Amino acid sequence: GGHGGAEQGRRREALVAGSIGPLVNPSHGRERIDPAEVRGALREQLDGLLEGGVDLFMIETFSILDDVLAAVAEARRAADLPIVASLTFGEELVLLDGTTPEQAAAALTAAGADVIGVNCGAGPAACLEALVRSGPATGSVGRSILPNAGLPQRIAV
Fold this sequence. Notes:
Layout: E1 17-20, H1 35-51, E2 56-62, H2 65-78, E3 83-87, H3 101-111, E4 115-120, H4 124-133, E5 142-147
Parallel strand pairs: 1-2, 2-3, 3-4, 4-5
């Protein structure tokens, strides 16, 4: 890759984050996928994003710790770019595999994520609580939150 001469000396107006989401829809049950297949699928996404010139990787909406750790590891192998690793917690503030925000933050820090985040899930209050439980940002690992509006509700009018 590398940027053309016109980019040289010009200030970038924006950074582009390349989004990588989970490989299976967690609401459709969880069949085990061969780890080599998982790595291959992740690498295909990462290579496409790198070819497109992304400035950082946004690994988001994961709800199984092993999967997000595999994505972080592949992203680290693919390029020396910042990695945001963002998880989606249910109403009980655990991942689908039972991992707590505290456990997830420790594992993602050890895996080399630059930013640990929470996104979507059960709405802003649950996202904020999960983020707070993941611990404060440190000098080397930031925090991120991208909540959704919450779960749909039927309201009688």
